Amino acid sequence: MYYSYSEVARENYSFVIQKFWRNLERAMGYNEATVEEDSTVLFICDMQEKFYTGIPMFKEVIFNVSKMVQICNVLGIPIVVTEHIPQLFGKTVPEIDLTGVKGPFGKTLWSMCIPEVLKELETICNNKPPKSIILTGVATHACVEMTAIDLKKKGFQVHLLAECCSSSRLEDHTHAIERFKQMGCFVITIENLIGKLLKDVKHEKFKDTLRIVMTSAKL
């Protein structure tokens, strides 16, 4: 990035430096890595009863997704839930509280981006569409990945919660995580996400959120 002598002379030096860093952050994608409470939605993809068997670590994923639901309820973040062919794979597991969520929406597409979900997104954040989607569920390499692809095509920022997804084979899950990064998604953890959402220990919901985050799993 180049700034001429005349530009530096014309503008305050500190302002030029600030502009330089803003441009650099934009180029590096830092701005896209931010997450705001009022423009974020949690997606829960196909956390269904059939997958108690066949999905490694499914019990742990259930626990973490359930924890994320509690956090979103505390912070007022909307939640969208889908079920893949529910007559075949069953309903969403009962451990996940569906009170107040949008859905569950049944689907046959691998992607969660079905017409009913896209319609909800139009006004889900105070009558506006969200900026960021927090993505959880199964399977990482199938329905979750296809959802991410469609969301990226539509201009949403996608943040995959690493401990909130899994696949039937570790190899599929591992390679899918790499593809998420390659397509420009952010692979993060719950605690990392909370830091980005709250930003300050003075946040009025900090203690309530911390209590949920620090809850020990009873597995």
From TrEMBL:
Please state every residue range assigned to the domain named Isochorismatase-like: 40-191
Q: Which Gene3D superfamilies match?
A: Isochorismatase-like
TM regions (residue ranges):
none
UniProt xrefs under SUPFAM superfamilies: Isochorismatase-like hydrolases
Its family remark reads:
Belongs to the isochorismatase family.
Kindly provide the name given to this protein in its UniProt entry.
Isochorismatase domain-containing protein 1
Q: Which organism is it from?
A: Trichomalopsis sarcophagae
